[in-house]
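We emphasize that the prediction below concerns an isolated chain of 216 residues; any contacts that depend on oligomerization or on bound cofactors are therefore not represented. The input was used exactly as deposited, without trimming of termini.
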Amino acid sequence: MRAAGIEGATRSKRVKTTRPDPAAARHPDLVNREFTATSPNRLWVTDLTFVPTWAGVAYVCFIIDVFSRMIVGWRCASHMRTEMVLDAIEMARWGRGRHHEDLRCHSDAGSQFTSIRYGERLAEIGATPSIGTVGDSYDNALAETVNGYYKTELVRGPARPGPWKTVEDLELATLGWVHWHNTQRLHGYLGDVPPAEFEQAFYAGHTTSDQLVGIK
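Result of the prediction step, given as a token string:
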């Protein structure tokens, strides 16, 4: 790699983003490490990650639809209070519809995800919270994976645009990365197509099937 003039992405010092609240009641694990869904808006996963900036540590929350790997909501902030997670849910609600039946939203046991306000916000869209065990990344593996390639492709990617001066600079860069992830990034799990194209094919197939059922 040295001879070719390339180098691998490096991991920075870890900042703890999962801080459980021992006094908060936890929702049961409704996923049990089965990160599959038969259609959009049946299972979302969410998690927090961190990015260093000149102004301090920034925190990013992503909400991912398991069916298509589409990032349906996200938020970048200088804190990791519950409000940032609620903002990400609000983005998902406006982008995916205001109410969903049989939707589960899975997370780790961070205090943001065991808060009363988080549960209430999910209830408003018909979603049921699901929480994995404390300190076990396998229980939220898909969200951890998205965090990982966000770090590799944007934060420590070949272009290496960071470190960013402000949280707002990182937010703008994350906006561009999310758009690329959803509309252009090829996912092997999806047959090497982007999430948006995968969902379009799903809805097109169901529309055709519905039309054929009505033909006599």
